[in-house]
Design a protein that fits this description.
The chain has about 550 residues and is of the alpha/beta class. It has 14 helices and 29 strands. A 7-stranded mixed β-sheet has the order 12-27-28-29-25-26-13. A 7-stranded mixed β-sheet has the order 23-20-21-22-14-17-24, with no helix packed on it. A 4-stranded antiparallel β-sheet has the order 4-5-6-7. Helix 8 crosses helix 9 and helix 12 packs across helix 13. The longest helix is centred in the N-terminal third of the chain and has 16 residues. The chain is elongated and about 105 Å long. The C terminus is likely disordered.
Length: about 550
């Protein structure tokens, strides 16, 4: 199957709608958009939306806009804008130029607000924000009309212009749509559509001191851009009534249609930018790109590939049914991708020195072996593995005594060193606490990469040459939360896993000294790891665990 076919969006209710719209002539061109608010970094939930919106545009030969819904300058930052652009490109997508911003339409939005005022459908309210909440009512009780609701059109227009001129303090006045305070849908109870904010805007500077609310801006921006299929998550389902009301009562002709899907809920992760920001602010994580976070930048730094994230989003599909996806589904995708593309290397995470006592005798003189970087892929080339009298193996690969199921090195038994000799453990040295600190062994002559009659090692273990290996920190990660659904906890900070990161001082083969930022490897018998990009910025070499070789059944342990 061609790569293009493999990445096509699987059939779902939205593709059915698009097919029907194209067949009926409602539209002849598919136009979607990805509209993030630039108030944080993107996370795995945004990846689902990116893959869907850009993927639909690709599959139907349409267009997809990148539009920043930048209506709240208090929380927005140019850092977030640049990070979002970088993440979309890294995932493999390109937007229809130019990049859009809701702020591009501020003049038009102001004009549409005046249209509502002139029709008697919007009014300036001087209730405080707390009073507005009290007047709004509850799910069981209708709201109450504001005492300012029936102001004359001329007064509302003058007061709105006063708002724009900076004549009201923040919170002293706002513009509300006049809809229905008794509506069963709270979003229709005279929602605020403009508020006062004396804040510098990243795009418009200090031109404005009033800013439109998201719900007023979003639908108009879609209409201005001619979006045909406006896709969002289910929590915005009720808001569609407000969007339609706004578009029904202003002079714009275009009518985008909104469709809602379930959001992505992933085990042991958060998809709330507010909560993610709190983790960053409190120093619980090392920035928005901490490898323990499922932000796109965090996944990238951890070693996830664009292809693996796109495949994950393809597999989970698009439905209206809320569910929580197991972390193993995401891990499986990156494991499959890296297995096919990541070069192999040897690294000892818990080093234990072994002395090959007969190294240098007849038949035990080879000091280097040429091995493939990726088995079955000769185009990936080879590298040289070296060996000398002293090597390191992993502590878990040696036991003084063990049962028959133990396939690694134990006293009196033989194992094969990966790509190298068969060795037998002769004795071991211990420290004052009884911990083994050195193993004495001997190699079977002429056994380097060859079978020797009378010797049948039960297993293969990896090693590195003590003479030229490189000592590097390796960051091992466990889930950041002890609860698979941290967002549902009364206090999500109370379920932070205090042992989510462990730094090991490992010994790795010398070829890894030349690793490039973000470069992925399979550490044989251990897992997939990548060179940490942030460490490189500081002139250091570190590796991050991407994913273990096999699924961990106790992911939350």
């Amino acid at each position: 199957m061609a790569a293009e076919e493999q990445e096509r969006i699987p059939r779902n209710f939205i593709t059915d709608i698009i097919d029907a719209d194209l067949n009926s002539g409602r539209t002849s061109h598919v136009a979607t958009r990805f509209p993030p608010e630039p108030n944080g970094y993107l996370h795995i939930g945004h990846a689902k939306s990116i893959c869907l919106n850009f993927g639909l545009a690709r599959d139907y030969g349409g267009t997809c806009n990148l539009r920043f819904d930048d209506t709240n300058p208090v929380k927005e930052d140019m850092e977030y804008i640049k990070s979002i652009e970088r993440d979309v490109r890294w995932l493999g997508f390109q937007w229809q130029e130019p990049i859009r911003h809701s702020s591009d339409y501020f003049d038009k939005l102001y004009g549409y607000a005046l249209e509502l005022i002139d029709q008697g459908l919007a009014y300036v309210d001087e209730l405080s924000p707390d009073e507005i909440r009290q007047y709004r009512g509850t799910l069981k009780e209708p709201g109450r009309n504001s005492p300012y609701r029936d102001r004359p059109v001329e007064e509302n227009r003058a007061l709105f212009e006063k708002m724009r001129a900076g004549g009201f303090a923040e919170g002293a006045a706002c513009l509300r749509a006049k809809i229905d305070m008794a509506s069963p849908f709270i979003c229709m109870r005279d929602p605020v559509i403009y508020r006062v904010r004396f804040a510098h805007h990243a795009m418009t500077g200090d031109k404005w001191c009033i800013y439109p609310m998201y719900d007023f801006t979003h639908c108009i921006s879609d209409a201005i851009e001619g979006i045909t299929h406006s896709i969002c998550t289910l929590e915005f389902q009720d808001n569609r009534r407000l969007y339609d009301w706004v578009l029904d009562h202003i002079s714009i002709k275009s009518r985008p249609h909104q469709y809602e899907m379930s959001r992505l809920n992933l085990e042991y992760s958060l998809t709330s930018k507010r909560k993610l920001n709190l983790l960053v602010e409190k120093g619980i994580v090392d920035g928005w790109d901490d490898p323990r976070l499922t932000t796109i930048s965090g996944l990238r730094r951890r070693g996830y590939t664009p292809a693996s994230i796109r495949e994950f989003c393809r597999r989970i599909g698009v439905t209206k049914q809320e569910n929580t996806v197991e972390m193993s589904a995401l891990e499986s995708c990156v494991r499959e991708d890296l297995n096919a593309h990541a070069p192999r290397a040897m690294a000892v995470l818990h080093p234990l020195k072994v002395v090959i006592e007969n190294f240098g005798v007849e038949g035990v003189t080879e000091t280097a072996f040429e091995v493939p970087n990726l088995p079955d892929h000769p185009e990936m080339g080879t590298r040289t593995i070296t060996i000398s009298k002293e090597i390191y193996i992993d502590e878990a690969d040696f036991r003084e005594e063990a049962n028959k199921q133990y396939k690694r090195l134990k006293l009196g038994s033989e194992v094969r060193l990966r790509h190298g000799y068969i060795i037998k453990a002769l004795s071991c040295d211990k420290d004052e606490n009884g911990k083994v600190i050195l193993v004495h062994a001997e190699a079977v002559p002429h056994s380097a990469g060859a079978n020797v009659e009378g010797h049948k090692p039960k297993g293969v273990i990896h090693f590195v040459n003590a003479a030229d290996c490189v000592s590097v920190p390796v960051n091992m990660f466990a889930p950041l939360f002890t609860d698979p659904n941290p967002g549902a906890a009364e206090d999500f900070l109370s379920v932070v896993n205090q042992n989510s990161k462990e730094v090991l001082m490992a010994k790795v083969e010398k070829s890894l000294a030349d690793a490039k930022p973000g470069q992925a490897y399979q550490f044989e018998r251990e897992g997939y790891f990548c060179a940490d990009s942030k460490a490189f910025e500081q002139g250091k070499l570190e590796f991050n665990l991407t994913v273990a070789l096999r699924e961990n059944k106790k992911a939350g342990a």
